[in-house]
Amino acid sequence: MVTSVMIVGVGGQGSLLASKILGKAAMDKGYDVKVSEVHGMSQRGGSVVTYVRFGDKVNSPIIDKGGADYIISFELLEAARYVEFLKPGGQIVTSSQQIDPMPVIAGTAEYPTGLIEKMEEAGAKVDAIDALSLAEQAGSSKASNIVLMGRFSKYITDISREEWDKVIETTVPPKFLEMNKKAFELGVNA
Question: Which range marks the domain in which residue 146 is found?
């Protein structure tokens, strides 16, 4: 059995670190792991997508439409943008944060409303938390990626809390370790 996870967001939100943590946690557990490169305009605040797949034998890192078990999204509109990649009844773990895309900034469009309801109508289970506020509580708005990984860890029950902590300890620079552990904890308990 293979678990397929899409990590989506806007450039600069920490998709790469989140995919590295998930990939390493799965690898440490003995799974075959494939992680795709980041796709998108990460330097320009554009949409960014990373695929992480793990299981007994994974042939490809790519996730096709209707193939993702989970979507972890750092921004609400990004979650909605990729909902068609989710399997029927799949789980979305998302930040309730809203970052205006270029058309909204330029005044040619409005930020869509009712996104959680629309994703649920499309068949997704949605777990939306205010990851930004929790990250600020942990010490930095930049830690919302780790808050979301903490929240997501509740769905991957065969990787223990201690195993997640160990991966964070070996992945995050020492000077940011305590803040990131606190962010993860806040996500778990959100």
Answer: 2-188
